[in-house]
Write a structure and sequence with these properties.
The structure holds two protein chains of two kinds. By secondary structure, chain A is α+β, with helices and mostly antiparallel strands. Chain A has ten helices and four strands; from the N terminus they run H-H-E-H-E-E-H-E-H-H-H-H-H-H. Classes of the chains: A alpha+beta, B alpha+beta. Strand 4 (119-123) of chain A pairs antiparallel with strand 13 of chain B, so a sheet runs across the interface.
Chain lengths: 312, 459
């Protein structure tokens, strides 16, 4: 039997290291790109062309074609193997007419673009700013809703405030780790935070208290059953009773996510990866951060070994 | 086994058969399609609706570009939407979407379009404004607003829906001759008018024309459709005229805007433009189906290995869960996007959570020495609060995501939220009601063996 409460020093250290690594990744990203996370055109505007050419073309030719249309400083990358002839070009916002002009110029000067296998995405910067604002509001609302849900769930527990704070701390660690992971992938793989990333983040926030609630629910149930036992023991018992469910559920969700990650399309990979990391981190933070934190707090406040209080 | 259990079991089987019939593609008879009364008649069908990202297409987000200091006229955006919609429909593609987004945006989605650039031109095209003289002897009763007529100007503009054999109107001026227009008020009568000013080069021509045609009607046409046919009351010498017609302020304002900007009562600018190649989408569909099948097979195996007999019940319920969801996607219909498929797969992976909560509880009760039947019933009833709570949490998350997706053109986010939410509701049904029935039936059939062989329950 793993003692989640006794090993708390180890767990807190791991959590601290994870947070430090995440913050380091975010800062590195900020230093390298001027953004904590590399932000996609969804939030800041600009245009993104994924171009599949019917013949082999050179980067310089693409660059020239874009520059001729007034898009200097375009960022051009090859996607996939060389034989795919697929290129990704990032440039400033292009109007629909400009898009057409660019594609025509590519057709005549560089190589025929296969429209059926190409994507064009262009967003005006002001819309991007508005989307970013809406995103911030959504994250804020999500956190508030989770808070409200927690206070509702723990309304019958003695010292509900402590349960709430422990859950929120776990959730915050979770969010920081998820952000840090994405910053890292931004640095390593060029992943950009887009609307889908935000969807994943909101999902992680929404799900991040599920396990905590189940464990805390069991603690609440066990307190009157085992009157007189040290709080620590009751908590550990509750964790052991619920850990099977937590792990089994997480495993099933992970099976699906890993399958999508390995076999699904490339476009959805970052989206699934964020949720996967969020979910793993959630399991860890709920069992190894929220639970020990609650015990430490209860013990400190009652001085040394506390015994179970009668539940309402 | 009680009669109730058997009745539920039969009902569930029937439901599964219906779902199977809907999900497996076939030639559905007309009466089946006719049952889908909630779907719009024109597009009633039992096919999966694929989103833009899966079948390729064009998404254009347009924002009103009213001149500084001017408000969007009341109903103006809706009028603009209708005009854009009719133009998009004229492209002849299936199921285009033209919607108002917020208070100043219109979003256009045209799935499966081969030539997005041309479509953008069509959408943005400013319509042709004409001042045209009705042919002599033309009955004034037919000059009602909205009637489509023919003119002698611009043969390239297709007079769609025009009444054939109508006499041809004579075009006097086009929108190119107009400098500006705005609502005005006649101080004496209190009536609202539309004042307009012509380009200098058109002024003389118009002065001469009006001098010779006093008391005759002159029609204002947009894309060959009559907007109004005021009567020329006096010569318009300096290129500054007024149109009267018993307008309200709003009507006057709207007509002025139409005159100035062509057919769209609100000038629109493209803010975001996404063109997705159709082939890319196809590859995504194939990949995600393969990924989904692999993921779900692992979930099925896990449940079977870990929970044995109970796992079998859960697997059957999960199969029904998948069927029911797919059926709802076709019936409602839900537009499938890549994140939507991911949301569905994820919800399927988590659908067993409720079963797991119940089965873990059941095992605990068994270890405490309860009999098989009472342990199983206790498992279902005691786990209910946890199942309820975790599903509420999921639904709350979906609501936030949906709100966020709705706030701007993130239809992908909405797709994810929608499938996840729908999955949660179906899950409450399958994980509790259906699994419970299956467990009762299985225990009824194999319960005796299970008592002697605890491994059947994974205890």
């Amino acid at each position: 039997m793993i003692n989640f409460v006794q090993n708390r020093r180890l767990f807190f250290t791991i959590a601290a290291v994870l947070i430090l690594l995440s913050v380091a990744a975010l800062i590195t990203s900020a230093v390298m790109y001027g953004e904590l996370l590399r932000v996609s055109i969804d939030f800041k505007g600009g245009s993104l062309f994924v171009l599949k050419f019917e013949e082999s073309v050179s980067e310089a030719d693409i660059r020239e074609a874009f520059a001729e249309q007034g898009y200097t400083g375009a960022i051009i990358q090859r996607l996939g193997a060389a034989s795919e002839n697929t290129w990704q070009v990032r440039a400033s916002f292009a109007t629909a007419d400009d898009v057409q002009a660019v594609l025509d110029a590519l057709d005549t000067n560089v190589g025929k673009v296969d429209r059926a296998r190409s994507n064009v995405d262009t967003v005006e910067p002001t819309v991007g700013a508005e989307v970013a604002r809406n995103a911030a509001i959504a994250v804020l609302i999500a956190s508030l809703v989770v808070l409200a849900f927690i206070s509702f769930s723990f309304r019958h527990v003695p010292n509900p405030f402590r349960y709430g704070v422990a859950s929120i701390v776990a959730m915050s660690v979770n969010v920081v780790v998820t952000l840090g992971f994405y910053a890292l992938m931004g640095i390593l793989q060029g992943w950009e935070a887009d609307a889908l990333f935000l969807t994943a983040l909101l999902t992680v926030i929404g799900f991040s208290v599920q396990d905590v609630i189940v464990v805390f629910d069991r603690i609440r149930e066990n307190i009157p059953r085992h009157k007189g036992e040290p709080f620590e023991l009751i908590v550990n018992r509750s964790v052991m009773e619920t850990v099977h469910r937590s792990l089994a559920t997480q495993l099933n969700a992970m099976f699906v996510m890993i399958a999508i990650l390995l076999f699904g399309g490339a476009t959805i990979k970052p989206f699934i990866a964020v949720m996967l990391v969020g979910m793993i981190s959630e399991t860890f933070t709920s069992l190894c951060v929220a639970v020990p934190l609650l015990v430490v707090w209860e013990e400190r406040s009652s001085g040394g070994m506390s015994t179970a209080q009668a539940a309402v | 086994m009680s009669t109730r259990t058997i009745t539920s079991f039969v009902l569930i089987l029937l439901l599964a058969l219906v779902a199977l019939y809907v999900v497996i593609p076939s030639d559905y008879p007309d009466w089946v399609i006719d049952l889908l009364a909630w779907q719009p008649e024109s597009s009633r069908n039992l096919d999966f609706q694929l989103g833009l990202d899966l079948q390729g297409g064009l998404q254009v987000l347009m924002v009103s570009a009213m001149p500084a200091g001017q408000e969007i006229p009341v109903g103006g955006l809706e009028t603009a939407r209708q005009i854009v919609e009719s133009r998009v429909n004229a492209l002849g593609l299936t199921e285009p979407v033209v919607q108002i987004q917020g208070s100043e945006r219109i979003i256009v989605e045209i799935p499966g379009i081969q030539n997005p650039e041309q479509a953008v031109d069509t959408i943005r095209d400013t319509a042709l404004l004409e001042f045209a003289e009705p042919p002599l002897g033309y009955s004034l009763e037919t000059l009602f607003p909205g009637a489509v007529v023919r003119t002698d100007y611009g043969d390239d503009v297709e007079a769609t829906g025009a009444i054939t054999n109508t006499p041809v109107f004579k075009t006097i001026m086009t929108g190119a001759d107009l400098k500006q227009a705005g609502p005005q008020r006649n101080e004496q009568t209190g009536e609202y008018l539309v004042g307009f000013e012509l380009q200098p080069q058109a002024s003389d021509r118009f002065a001469e024309y009006t001098r010779n045609h006093i008391n005759q009607p002159l029609c204002i046409l947009l894309d060959k459709a009559i907007v109004s046919c005021p009567t020329i009351s006096s010569e318009i010498p300096d290129g500054q005229g007024q149109i009267s017609g018993g307008f309200t302020l709003e009507q006057a304002r709207q007509l002025a805007i139409q005159l100035q900007y062509g057919a769209l009562p609100v000038p629109l600018e493209i803010e975001s433009y996404k063109a997705i190649g159709p082939t890319l989408g196809q590859i995504s569909v194939e990949n995600s189906i393969r990924a989904g099948v692999i993921g779900l097979v692992i979930v099925f195996l896990f449940m079977l290995v870990y929970y044995r007999l109970n796992g079998l019940a859960a697997d059957l319920a999960l199969a029904l869960y998948v069927l029911l969801n797919l059926m709802l996607y076709k019936l409602l219909p839900v537009t499938m996007t890549l994140p939507g498929i991911a949301g569905f797969l994820l919800s399927a992976g988590m659908a067993v959570d409720a079963n797991i909560l119940v089965f873990e509880r059941m095992k605990e009760e068994l270890r405490r020495g309860r009999s098989l039947g009472s342990a199983s019933e206790a498992g279902f009833s005691r786990a209910w609060t946890s199942v309820r709570d975790s599903n509420i949490a999921t639904l709350l998350t979906c609501a936030i995501l949906f709100f966020f997706g709705n706030a701007f053109a993130a239809s992908l986010v909405k797709g994810f939220a929608l499938t996840l939410a729908l999955g949660t509701f179906v899950n409450i049904f399958t994980a509790i009601a259906v699994t419970r029935t299956f467990v009762r039936v299985l225990f009824g059939l194999f319960g005796e063996q299970a008592v002697d062989r605890p491994w059947l329950l994974g205890v």
